[in-house]
Amino acid sequence: MAIVNNVTRMLDAKKISYTAFETPAEKLSAVETANYLRVPVEIVYKTVVLMCQQLGGKSHSSRSKPILAVIPGSHVVDLKLVAVVLDEKKVLLPTEKEAELLTGLQAGGISPLALINKGFQVLIDVSAKSHQAIHISGGQRGLNLLLAVDSLADLTHARFGQISSLDK
After folding, report:
1. pLDDT in tens, 28-45
2. Separation of alpha carbons 37 and 50, rounded Å
3. Backbone dihedral region for residue 16 (phi beyond 0: left; psi -120 to 50: alpha; all else: beta)
4. pTM to 2 decimals?
5. Which DSSP state fits 89?
6. Half-sphere exposure of residue 117, counting CA atoms within 13 Å on the CB side?
């Protein structure tokens, strides 16, 4: 029996087509997930948590706005490209622990679908448009979802942009 969680219940309630896959419960990279599922790494996307650093008033205290960057598993997020897409001066990559605290989810299980209406801006790498569907985390370790790119973008109110480059 497939894993059921808030993400799958939400997709079912909205009658959005998806396929759920169980994966090992430990943290897997997108490449490891592709190998486990025996699918091309080009269609397995990972979610990277980022912060836009914005200067606040006279106190010069900084506050950050959270971003979820959905990028191909074989790529790395390009902070400069993200900053350009968002018209921001600087984008920061928090530590894994900080990302978990911001999202309330474990690394390896962070999903834009689990964070709908939680204040995250979602960016999807433009490469996703070349695929009808992509694999993403289902909101917890051990759950992977194959979902239409259009459905993901619509649900998360995502913007598309060139935000990653091939991992060297």
Report:
1. 999 999 999 999 999 999
2. 27
3. beta
4. 0.91
5. S
6. 3
